Amino acid sequence: MINQLDSVSHVQNKILDIAIQFGPKVIVAILIIIFGIYVGKWASGILDKGIKNFQLDPPVRQLLTRIVKVFVISLFTIMALQNLGVELLPLIAGLGVAGAGVALAMQGVLSNIVAGLTIIFTRPFRVGEYISIVSEEGQVVSISLFTTVLSHADKSMVVIPNRKIVGEILHNYGNIRQLDIKVGVAYDTNLDVAIAVIKEILNKNKMTLKDPAPVVSISLLASSSININIMPWVNVPDFIQTESDINKDIIDAFRRSNITIPFPQHEVKILENSISS
């Protein structure tokens, strides 16, 4: 029983010695890290305010502020470890070996990060622009280090890993798109009148842009109609609604002007051969 009490007393004394020896250092290290977090937030906030005048894209600003924040916190963490008496060289070597293993296991994540940095700094597209890539298309909602998010007209979201974007053929429509509407008229139609009616419709439509000017042209002499191409420019959010409105207005205006939109038709002739006996 006495031996057990001596052992407990020895352990308590050992813990007390360790607490006296390392306790103040641990408290100081924690305070250093907490102070570093506040300094990191302050430095990133100062940088964010300072680079607003450079008109950088939001992802670039976010990346730069995060880098500064992580850098400042890392410096204070190193100071805290030094205060605890930790040998940094063996620690750095161990982190290097561990980092190599993590890099091999996370090749996909790292390739997304590299691709994200490429997109952010080369800026092949920006938030708000309409793009088409890897069989998907939509308006760019956000660009991060890992993914690019597109919004569809049906309110769904498409999340594309950045490594699937870099190196692919990208179609960037920007903030406006061009409609491609085709309408056929009968061969006996006065084309000047038909084109004038279409141009009047485009001029009255509030969603079609006047600059760039809309394109109205004869596109094809088909078997049963003369096809007219109608290609006005609209803002990306107005694309679907404008196409519907123009189609309806064309039908109504053609009916009022007695302009015929012919049905597909074929003329069949039967030839009779008289066979003399």
Tell me what you see in this structure:
It is a single chain. It is elongated and about 125 Å long. The chain has 3 domains: 2-86, Helix Hairpins; 129-174, SH3 type barrels; 176-256, Alpha-Beta Plaits, CATH 3.30.70.100. The strands form 3 sheets. It has a 5-stranded antiparallel β-sheet, covered by helices on one side. It has a 3-stranded antiparallel β-sheet with strand order 7-9-8, with helices on one face. A two-stranded antiparallel ribbon has the order 6-10. The protein has 277 residues and is an alpha+beta fold. It has helices at residues 2-50, 58-83, 88-105, 107-122, 191-204, 239-256; strands spanning 130-133, 136-143, 147-151, 157-161, 171-174, 176-178, 181-185, 215-221, 226-231, 233-235. It is 51% helix and 18% strand.
Short synopsis of the structure:
This protein is α+β, with helices and mostly antiparallel strands and 277 residues long. It has six helices and ten strands, in the order ααααβββββββαβββα. It has helices spanning 2-50, 58-83, 88-105, 107-122, 191-204, 239-256, and strands at 130-133, 136-143, 147-151, 157-161, 171-174, 176-178, 181-185, 215-221, 226-231, 233-235.
